[in-house]
What does this fold into?
Amino acid sequence: MADEIVFYTNPMSRGRIVRWMLEEVGRPYRTEVLDYGTTMKAPEYLAINPMGKVPAIVCDGEVVTECAAICTFLADRFPEAGLAPGPQEAGRGTYLRWMFFAAGPLEAAVTANSLGLLPPADKAGTVGYGSYDAMVDALETAVSGPGPWILGDRFSAADVYVGAQINWGLMFKSLPERAAFIPYAERLRARPAYIRASEIDDALMLKG
It folds into this structure.
């Protein structure tokens, strides 16, 4: 079937971001739940993702890994969902800016901070995020505009990917409770696709 989507995931993984994105896209997909250390490292799955990590999707025979890439791919592959500005549309640069910011400086700084591995101030220039505080300040500007979403009044895949990291950051205390973050996360949690995706993954966690 053209555009068949197979989704490889585990409910306790970043696959929750992709599940949410798939629910926003609204196309049918088949889920393959993998276990850490067993099916995730089996030869069959390593042929799909040699990293032995989830999430991954296969769409019409094409493999896509990495959350930001999957979200970007799905938004572009199914433009009828309206989840990304087209290449010539206004907002495309802003959309790509924050998608890549979240995949690079945001994730790197949060991880380094959580592990106690932030560089000393005099070495901040050697890492892409500069400093954790500078990253947080920049992230806050992404969700501080006049509209409810990163692109103003238009919800996009950037809200899925960036928003998921803000939401998790607030829940797990890896991001500070900035004034702009809290209402933004509340808006995300109210989306029907977010609720559906969370219910599916929560049910899988109970089964597992």
